[in-house]
Amino acid sequence: IAYETFDRLDEALFAGKLKDAVYLDVRELGSYVSGATYNPGHGPDSRVSRITIVLNLAMHLTATPEHIIASLIHHMIHAYFLVACGPQKADELDYGRLNHGNHFGKIMYMIKNLSRSGGKCFPLDFGHELRMVRGNPYGLDYPHHASPSAFHNRSRKSQPPSDRSYCPHNAKEVEQAEIDVWYRGLCEPLLGLPDCVRGLVIYTLKDGEFMELQRAQAGRSDTFVELIFSGKALHVPIDKIAAHTSIREVFSKSRWLEIPEGVNLETFSALYDFLVNGSYGVDIGEMQTIDGKGPPLIKDFDLDSSQPLLLDIRVFKLAHDLKFEELQNVALQRINDQHITREDPVAVLREIYCDTPDPHADLRLWAHGFMTRYTTPAHFWTLTKPYDSSNLKELQQSNIHRSRFEKLVEHGGALHLDIAKAHEEL
């Protein structure tokens, strides 16, 4: 019966996820358990690398068909959690993969309630007493090898190894109402999360490359948090956020943090690197001079030059959106610590002014200093005015930048006002 119904039960109840992942066996397992479900490769047959379900032969020989099927479904629920969540580890017994707690109970009650016909439910339960002598004069059924007193007083055997389920007939029951409260509070909200958070794969990031990691191998869910970027969930060890009060506060409300749309991979990589490694971006030492100061002076434009300034501004904006104050402060410090730049200055200003009609005050202050930055004359009697050697003049009159800068100014708004103030100051 078990072999004939397994595939149909799998399709009807578990979306076919068990068929190629589970090996079904029938063996003698003593007289106390209905069977056992084993981690992949840990079953009695060492040649089998799949999850193994073993039904106890002694307990099923005289059971009715409906009780055999109920017992099989019981173990298929255990197997489903191993497929979905990975093998149970020795230090994760409370995680719920192979025990009979809320996780098991939710699926068990769902199947049991769906099976209700004419007011009678399928005999699916937390434990299954299969080998019964029927028709005793008291209307009770007891195992035919035990007396009523033995049935009630039997002591619980010691727990088996952590790589398998332990399924005695008297497994502790959890009330459906209690499970429903747990489910509504903890599980139901997760259904609204992106698919990547509920998927089997999670990612890490190394040198801008996404590296796949099976979620089952990522450790307990309370040991890491997840950044959701471009349809992918990225793994961040929880101890990496411990030093950052602001982002720790963000993650105190949820284990997931969605990165806003429009953030490119380079900017996200900077955020990820800062969290995991404590720093991000290229060394800005080449953008500094011995006696220099920031904001930087515009030097000869080099298309192949690194663009730390543009990246730092983008990181600052992302950190502000995420309320990640520590990263925001680091990005602003890097912006102010650059003394020269060979980046496209128009692109830098566009990044500050064009995304929003009201740029962040710190970025506007820096942009004002950037436009009014000029070369200090070598001699105090030099007659040139500050404007003549300023970044603003370079932007307004250079053949390389002038036309694009004029198009940027046409947007008006805060940039137009800040240019007027900078010109007046110079």
Automatic annotation (TrEMBL):
One GO biological process term: response to stress
Top-level taxon: Eukaryota
The protein, known as: SprT-like domain-containing protein
Lineage of source species: Eukaryota, Fungi, Dikarya, Ascomycota, Pezizomycotina
